[in-house]
């Protein structure tokens, strides 16, 4: 939200008060509080009839410093609040230090400095004493607008050349500088400034992050009002934000996700190919069986089959009952599908249509959100007369999950938790939550409710969602997908931008609708999207009004789907290692180039390529003719599909057929290559090959088990013309390939490979 009219004036009707000078300071061992006047005090009379802004400075966890600015402190607290499972003030190691007029608060590698004698301001310093950012004049304020609303405002300085990323899954330009961003959930597709997943966290290219600890609407102006500042504001009496230390982007994400929650580890089977009925298409068991048969006949392994909305009767979403005219024997159908090795996913949402029998039941039990006058809140958008489940009520959560439990008993494995963005504010919640704060936060309790049910019923490590909406902390309940995109190259690029932004907002796993959702893709779009989708953390074929089975787009599409599905299965020992890293550290599976190469300035704006795990560079092709331009960082990289080597730093211009795209292996990498290309959750040590790229003196590679723990460790050393590999934890045969020379070795324990001086 903008408050000023250019640099000198305020917008009409806006009145602002800025922290100007410190009138009192209280310092404790691990925190301090400053009381800032909003005007210069020249005489005692200047202290009358004027506000103070209270500024509390503290550390919620190691390497994070919080600032809370308050105008009037008497506002009754109303939830919800972000849970922050990593909140640990006692373990932050925070300490204060005073030197003359200067007061410092240090936590880990981060220091906040304030000078009581100078103009109002706060400076954040890294471990080397370098200024990361700061609050300058007019950077701490409150303002009232013509409608009487009260806003708390903060501004953090942008340095020359500094880029800002994140703020959720945003499909606008990847670098957020110059953008106005409202953290407010909306069902806006992928072609607008609206977002399904709004996260009040951004990451700076200077090696720090900023988290605004407010679950309601947060308005960001990223160099778009005051061009040298990131401004954020809330309609409230208090504003709390945290500066998160690096110095690397990975360390920022590690600290941020430790605070807000690390992602659960999705089960290995979820990394295989998902196929859906699509949304508005006509389907029954015969259709479903024909799809499954068609995939098998064409030798395309399938891991999950998903039933979208119309598994239920029209006008009755959700009643969680199969349409009996279309699916007269759901238990038998699911059993037949599961006999073929498939997992089953079902579409759900948190809305109850008036025609559903659950509407009257939920209303009578008090499980539906109500208006202030006691009426059930309803509208006709999406479903006629639909209401909203009140997940703030424990009884309502149990009621809702009880309906889902019946589906799990039938053989369902997971749920697509669609929607959760269209949440009204003219309502009363069971637990008394503030409706404005609950608008964004609803997605969290919706997804958490379903995820925890799956963990309880299926066991730890077996829960997975396909969720659309999220707020801060939502990364704990993977997987999230990119919502409704068009079937075009433009939308394919939009989707990737959204995924990269989400990954820099703390989310470890992300997917998208292969081929696009809206409309029917041109075969070229579909084939290019197949390669991109199967080189994402999770891969799903899904559409709106048309099927997404590959043969609908020609035999070449079938070949492309087969090739990249088999490739992904071979990569599973590597990919699941990256997944385990995301679970342990918060570093995402799909990584913007900035994460792996923060010291390379060229990587800071790249939004059409990414690293899949630490060692694979992927550049999707966004053209029909196969023209692709991408950047290769320093070193000699190897095309995984062709074996060609490429030396960087350099920009590359290449042409690829539909069965290819740039997939480059990082110099010095060792890829654990699975022997089973039929399924994602096989025995990764059976037929394992270690593919060695580069000439590093010594390195270690691990292969995970299905729980994400280390199943095997391999230590590699080079001595002259010999590469020696030693296995630990296992006594099973494996193979080693030196990709530079093509020489191989195999055996158990220690394996040597002659590399002929390569």
UniProtKB/TrEMBL annotation:
<feature type="region of interest" description="Disordered">
    <location>
        <begin position="71"/>
        <end position="108"/>
    </location>
</feature>
<dbReference type="InterPro" id="IPR011013">
    <property type="entry name" value="Gal_mutarotase_sf_dom"/>
</dbReference>
<feature type="domain" description="Glycoside hydrolase family 31 N-terminal">
    <location>
        <begin position="56"/>
        <end position="221"/>
    </location>
</feature>
<dbReference type="GO" id="GO:0061634">
    <property type="term" value="F:alpha-D-xyloside xylohydrolase"/>
</dbReference>
<dbReference type="InterPro" id="IPR050985">
    <property type="entry name" value="Alpha-glycosidase_related"/>
</dbReference>
<dbReference type="Pfam" id="PF13802">
    <property type="entry name" value="Gal_mutarotas_2"/>
</dbReference>
<protein>
    <submittedName>
        <fullName>Alpha-xylosidase</fullName>
        <ecNumber>3.2.1.177</ecNumber>
    </submittedName>
</protein>
<dbReference type="Pfam" id="PF21365">
    <property type="entry name" value="Glyco_hydro_31_3rd"/>
</dbReference>
<dbReference type="InterPro" id="IPR000322">
    <property type="entry name" value="Glyco_hydro_31_TIM"/>
</dbReference>
<keyword id="KW-0326">Glycosidase</keyword>
<dbReference type="InterPro" id="IPR017853">
    <property type="entry name" value="GH"/>
</dbReference>
<dbReference type="InterPro" id="IPR025887">
    <property type="entry name" value="Glyco_hydro_31_N_dom"/>
</dbReference>
<feature type="domain" description="Glycosyl hydrolase family 31 C-terminal">
    <location>
        <begin position="586"/>
        <end position="671"/>
    </location>
</feature>
<dbReference type="Pfam" id="PF01055">
    <property type="entry name" value="Glyco_hydro_31_2nd"/>
</dbReference>
<feature type="compositionally biased region" description="Polar residues">
    <location>
        <begin position="99"/>
        <end position="108"/>
    </location>
</feature>
<feature type="domain" description="Glycoside hydrolase family 31 TIM barrel">
    <location>
        <begin position="263"/>
        <end position="577"/>
    </location>
</feature>
<comment type="similarity">
    <text>Belongs to the glycosyl hydrolase 31 family.</text>
</comment>
<dbReference type="InterPro" id="IPR013780">
    <property type="entry name" value="Glyco_hydro_b"/>
</dbReference>
<dbReference type="InterPro" id="IPR048395">
    <property type="entry name" value="Glyco_hydro_31_C"/>
</dbReference>
<keyword id="KW-0378">Hydrolase</keyword>
């Amino acid at each position: 939200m903008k408050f000023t009219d250019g640099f000198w004036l305020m917008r009409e009707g806006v009145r602002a008060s800025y922290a100007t000078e410190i009138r009192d300071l209280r310092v404790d061992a691990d925190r301090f509080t400053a009381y800032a006047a909003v005007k210069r005090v020249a005489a005692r009379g200047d202290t009358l009839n004027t506000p103070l802004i209270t500024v509390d400075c503290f550390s919620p966890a190691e390497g994070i410093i919080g600032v809370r600015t308050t105008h009037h402190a008497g506002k009754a607290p109303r939830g919800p609040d972000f849970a922050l499972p990593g909140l640990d003030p006692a373990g932050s190691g925070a300490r204060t230090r005073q030197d003359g007029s200067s007061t410092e608060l240090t936590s880990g590698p981060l220091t906040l400095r304030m000078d009581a004698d100078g103009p109002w301001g706060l400076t954040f310093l890294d471990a080397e004493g370098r200024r990361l950012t700061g609050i300058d004049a007019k950077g701490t304020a409150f303002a009232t607008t013509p409608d009487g609303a009260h806003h708390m405002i903060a501004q953090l300085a942008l340095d020359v050349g500094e880029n800002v990323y994140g703020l959720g899954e945003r499909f606008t330009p990847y670098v957020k500088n110059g953008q106005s961003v409202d953290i407010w959930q909306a069902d806006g597709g992928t072609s607008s400034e609206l977002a399904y997943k709004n996260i009040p966290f951004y990451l700076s290219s200077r090696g720090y992050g900023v988290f605004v600890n407010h679950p309601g609407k947060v308005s960001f102006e990223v160099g778009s009002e005051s061009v040298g500042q990131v401004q954020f504001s809330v309609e409230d009496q208090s504003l709390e934000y945290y500066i998160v230390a690096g110095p690397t982007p990975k360390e920022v994400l590690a600290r941020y996700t430790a605070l807000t929650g690390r992602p659960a580890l999705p089960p290995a089977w979820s990394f295989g190919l998902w196929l859906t009925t699509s949304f508005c298409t006509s389907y029954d068991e015969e259709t479903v069986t024909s799809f499954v048969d068609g995939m098998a006949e064409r030798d395309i392994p399938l891991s999950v089959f998903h039933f979208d909305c119309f598994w239920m009767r029209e006008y009755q979403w959700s009643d969680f009952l199969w349409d009996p005219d279309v699916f007269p024997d759901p238990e038998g159908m699911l059993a037949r599908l599961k006999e073929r090795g498939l997992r089953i996913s079902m579409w759900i949402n948190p809305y109850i249509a008036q025609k559903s029998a659950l509407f009257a039941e939920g209303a009578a039990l008090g499980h539906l959100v109500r208006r202030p006058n006691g009426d059930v809140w309803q509208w006709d958008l999406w479903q006629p007369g639909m209401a909203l489940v009140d997940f703030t009520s424990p009884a309502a959560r149990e009621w809702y999950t009880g309906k889902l439990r019946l589906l799990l008993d039938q053989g369902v494995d997971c749920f697509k938790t669609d929607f959760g963005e269209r949440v009204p504010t003219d309502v009363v919640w069971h637990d008394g939550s503030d409706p404005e704060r609950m608008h964004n936060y609803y997605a969290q309790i919706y997804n958490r409710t379903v995820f925890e049910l799956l963990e309880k019923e299926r066991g730890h490590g077996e829960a997975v969602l396909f969720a659309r909406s999220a707020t801060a902390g939502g990364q704990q309940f993977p997987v999230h997908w990119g919502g409704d995109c068009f079937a075009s190259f433009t939308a394919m690029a939009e989707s990737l931008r959204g995924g990269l932004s989400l990954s820099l907002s703390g989310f470890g796993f992300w997917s998208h609708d292969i081929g696009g959702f809206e409309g029917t893709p041109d075969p070229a779009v579909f084939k290019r999207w197949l390669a991109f989708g199967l080189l994402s953390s999770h891969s799903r074929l899904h559409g709106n009004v048309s099927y997404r089975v590959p043969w609908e787009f020609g035999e070449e599409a079938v070949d492309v789907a087969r090739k990249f599905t088999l490739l992904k299965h071979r990569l599973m020992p590597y990919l699941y290692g990256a997944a385990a890293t995301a679970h342990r550290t918060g570093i995402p599976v799909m990584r913007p180039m900035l994460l792996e190469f923060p010291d390379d300035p060229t990587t800071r704006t790249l939004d059409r390529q990414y690293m899949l795990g630490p060692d694979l560079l992927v550049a999707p092709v966004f053209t029909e003719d196969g023209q692709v331009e991408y950047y290769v960082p320093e070193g000699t990289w190897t095309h995984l599909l062709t074996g060609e080597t490429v030396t960087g730093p350099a920009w590359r211009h290449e042409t690829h057929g539909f069965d290819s795209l740039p997939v480059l292996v990082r110099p010095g990498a060792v890829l654990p290559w699975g022997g089973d290309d039929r399924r994602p959750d096989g025995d990764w040590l059976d037929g394992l090959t270690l593919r060695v790229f580069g000439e590093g003196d010594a390195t270690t590679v691990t292969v995970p088990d299905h729980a994400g723990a280390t199943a095997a460790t391999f230590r590699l050393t080079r001595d002259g013309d010999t590469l020696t590999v030693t296995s630990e934890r296992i006594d099973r045969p494996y193979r080693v390939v030196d990709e530079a020379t093509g020489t191989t070795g195999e055996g158990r324990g220690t394996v040597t490979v002659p590399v002929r001086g390569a």
